[in-house]
């Protein structure tokens, strides 16, 4: 019985050994085949172009997707909104209705035909990116060296900016339909009582002062307006000297005819003047900068409080690259300022209008207060540019 069991165990060990040898031989065969495949692939890679190999790999292992065509949307001016806002700024009076009787029992009503000065009918649409009339500009004015030329030099920067933020809130409450664009209007060329070294009765501000104005505007996400009081110097020459700043998209220009002494009088002895030819030369220059540096439209502010400060306004040419603001900057009581606006600004339409409010001079007796935002918004046309000095 024991011999039989031993014999059976011996047979099982022989079968197990045979199977082990079989598996080993099969493994060797598979290994050789794998080596042959790897060698073949390596040979094909070496002898073929690398780019073709990547194409094959990409086609095997990547997911095929359909690419949508790239659509470039070109910004356009919203002319419907522009026209609507221009009509609102015009603040036209309600047409007069005349009743005429044709018999004792029949009457007809007709609207009286009126010729409206505002908005300006032949003004071109501005280029894309224009600020006006989509936003109302609220500017603080002055020079950092002078406490008497405006609020910018009267207080430290943090107080000025806080006062400006408060004014912005006040105007937002008065007109909820028009966003506010804050601005720092800095006098880059100041008129002087004496001729000075250059004999031109004006002083150019150093670049660090202009840089300060630009940095100051960044704190309020605003724009900068550089003001030129040319004295007896050539106004075009002084404007061109500002090109390093005017080529920036957020920097705009203002000229003050009161201190443009083109006939040689010292500033302060008479009120200066500019002509339409001066303004047209300025707008053409600004337009050239817009085209050269691919900028949004520039704003040109022109201060005015008498008729003769600007001559031949009807000859001023409007351009899509430049938006012109006639800013009434006379000081006095609310009634006096409204009268000056109606007499000087309204009858000679150019494009847009503005008004300057003086924190000090508008309070000189007999005046006791400044015009309020609501009172300004009742002017005809409504100013889209508000300046505080």
The name of the CATH topology of the largest domain is: TIM Barrel
Question: What is the averaged pLDDT score?
Answer: 84
Residue windows where pLDDT falls under 50 for at least 5 positions:
1-6, 8-13, 44-65, 98-107
Helical run tally: 11
Trace the largest sheet across and list its strands. 3-4-6-7-9-11-12-13
Instruction: Describe the global form.
Output: globular
Q: Element order, helices and strands?
A: HHHEEEHHEEHEHHEEHEEEHEHE
- Number of DSSP E strands: 13
Domain module count: 2
Estimated structural class: alpha/beta
Q: Quickly name the level 1 CATH class of the largest domain.
A: Alpha Beta
Assign the CATH architecture of the largest domain. Alpha-Beta Barrel
> Terminal Cα separation, in Å?
126 Å
Helix content: 25-40%
Largest sheet: 8 strands, parallel, barrel
What percent strand? Answer: 15-25%
Radius of gyration over all CA atoms, rounded: 39 Å
Gist of the model:
With 389 residues, this protein is an alpha/beta fold. It has 11 helices and 13 strands. The chain starts with a helix and ends with a strand.
């Amino acid at each position: 019985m024991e011999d039989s069991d031993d014999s059976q165990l011996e047979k099982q060990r022989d079968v197990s050994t045979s199977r082990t040898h079989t598996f080993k031989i099969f493994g060797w065969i598979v290994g050789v085949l794998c080596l042959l495949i790897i060698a073949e692939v390596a040979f094909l890679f070496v002898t073929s172009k690398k780019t073709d190999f990547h194409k094959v790999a990409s086609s095997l292992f990547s997911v095929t997707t359909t690419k949508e065509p790239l659509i470039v949307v070109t910004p356009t001016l919203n002319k419907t909104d522009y026209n609507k806002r221009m009509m609102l700024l015009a603040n036209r009076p309600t047409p007069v209705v005349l009743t005429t009787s044709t018999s004792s029992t029949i009457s007809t009503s007709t609207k009286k035909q009126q010729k409206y000065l505002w908005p300006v009918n032949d003004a071109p649409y501005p280029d894309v990116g224009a600020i006006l009339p989509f936003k109302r500009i609220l500017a603080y004015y002055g020079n950092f060296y002078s406490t008497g030329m405006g609020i910018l030099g009267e207080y430290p920067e943090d107080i000025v900016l806080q006062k400006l933020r408060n004014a912005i809130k006040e105007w937002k409450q008065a007109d909820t339909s028009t966003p506010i664009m804050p601005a720092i209007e800095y006098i880059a060329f100041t008129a002087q009582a004496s001729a000075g070294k250059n004999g031109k009765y004006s002083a150019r501000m150093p670049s660090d002062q202009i840089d300060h104005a630009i940095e100051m505007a960044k704190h309020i996400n605003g724009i900068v307006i550089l003001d030129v009081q040319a004295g007896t110097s050539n106004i075009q020459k002084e404007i061109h000297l500002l090109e390093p700043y005017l080529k920036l998209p957020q920097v705009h220009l203002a000229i003050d005819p009161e201190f443009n002494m083109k006939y040689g009088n010292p500033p302060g002895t008479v009120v200066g003047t500019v002509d339409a030819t001066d303004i047209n030369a300025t707008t053409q220059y600004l337009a050239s900068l817009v085209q050269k540096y691919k900028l949004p439209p520039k704003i040109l502010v022109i201060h005015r409080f008498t008729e003769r400060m600007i001559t031949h306004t009807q000859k001023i040419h409007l351009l899509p690259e430049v938006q012109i603001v006639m800013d009434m900057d006379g000081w006095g009581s609310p009634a006096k300022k409204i009268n000056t606006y109606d007499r000087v600004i309204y009858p000679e339409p150019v494009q847009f209008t503005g008004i300057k409010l003086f924190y000090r001079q508008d309070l000189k007796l007999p005046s006791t207060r400044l015009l309020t935002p609501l009172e300004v918004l009742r002017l005809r046309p409504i100013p889209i540019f508000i300046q505080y000095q």
